[in-house]
Amino acid sequence: MSATTQSPIIPIKSSSEPPHVIAPDAATIFSRRAARFDQLAEGHSLGDWLRFLGAISRAQHTALQALPELDLPGAAQMALAREHRMPPLPAQSWPRPAVWRDVLRDIAAAIEGTAAEVARKDLARLKALDADALEALAERVLHTELYGEDAALLPYVAAALQVLWTGAASRLGISEIAALDVPGVCPCCGFLPVASVIRTVGEVSNLRYLHCALCNTEWNLVRLKCSACDVTDGVSYRALQDGQGKESEAIRAETCESCKSYLKIAYAEKAAVDPVADDLATLALDILVDEAGYARSGPNLLLVPGG
Ligand SMILES: [Zn+2]
Ligand SMILES: [Zn+2]
Q1: What is the model's pLDDT at position 244?
Q2: What is the value of pTM for the model shown?
Q3: Of 15, 21, 279, 299, which is most buried with the most CB atoms under 10 A?
Q4: Ligand nearest to the CA of 91
């Protein structure tokens, strides 16, 4: 690949040095996810649900293209964040602009028509909430308290917050984000990864990137290492098998004997994977590793746990 055909969003320092951080591409991140949900829904036992999630992703794409200008950290704040190795858009403390509530309203309006009965009732309840109640739900998402009363409303709130944070992350300027001392959290917003992706960047293949569950930023982590506790010993992989006993090549679970956690790995070199969509299309794999005694280390915000 010549230098002129390389993607402008990936600043490649040299052909042998892959970028530490990859910012989300606002033009494609949610539309590609929507297409992947539709593809995975074909012949799937949870097809209707996956198609609905595709509709949510498509609504996220539309909302992101229309997202107005945001009040982002200035040069001094960015320098301070870099110096202290802190994420510049911290999920739990960035003063989020109120526009995310408009995004939520637009997403809800866009998916209402395709929603099943139960989801339509949830959307109606959401519509009736005032600003304070919505902000309280946002706090629960951003502190990963994804349970309790009204938990069924949280995926919609999360979808709107994903649009806000993804828009902010994509506009921030990727070279401004430093690697953090904690490898398991997003260097842009400090949130947890939904999964990791094995991909080719530039001329380097087999690179592993953790994918942020909130802002869709990706950051590099060496392979064969637990993203939750940083150990390299006792990391192993489990996969689902098809009817012929053949293991899935698109997604596996990376389990760690040290902290007994797991996170899935999607193989972009094997299929057109999306870390969020492929994760939700393989809930059977979660059940498998859960029964083997491992706890998931990062959330998928479109899922209601136990829902
Ligand atoms: Zn993030
Ligand atoms: Zn571990």
Answers
A1: 85
A2: 0.93
A3: 279
A4: 1
- Ligand nearest the Cα atom of residue 24: 1
247 Cα: distance to centroid of ligand 2 (angstroms) = 24
Which of the following CATH numbers is that of domain 17-176: 3.40.190.10, 3.90.1670.10, 1.10.287.130, 3.40.50.300?
3.90.1670.10
Task: Please give the distance, rounded to the nearest whole angstrom, from the Cα atom of residue 266 to the centre of ligand 2.
Answer: 18
Centre of ligand 1 from the C-alpha of residue 184, in Å = 11
Ranges of residues in the chain with a pLDDT under 50 are 1-13
- pLDDT in the model for residue 12: 45
CA of 169 to the centre of ligand 1 (A): 8
- What are the domain boundaries of the chain? 17-176, 193-296
Q: pLDDT, tens digit, for every residue of 80-131?
A: 988 898 999 999 999 999 999 999 999 999 999 999 999 999 999 999 999 9
Distance CA 196, CA 220 (A): 9
How many angstroms is it from 166 CA to the middle of ligand 1? 8
* Max CA distance (Å), the chain: 58
Quote the pLDDT of residue 178: 77
Question: Under a CB-based contact definition with an 8 Å cutoff, are residues 142 and 92 in contact?
Answer: yes
Q: Which ligand is nearest to the CA of 296?
A: 2
Quick count: other Cβ atoms within 10 Å of Cβ 272?
12
Contact 151/304 with Cβ under 8 angstroms?
yes
d(CA 57, CA 265): 21
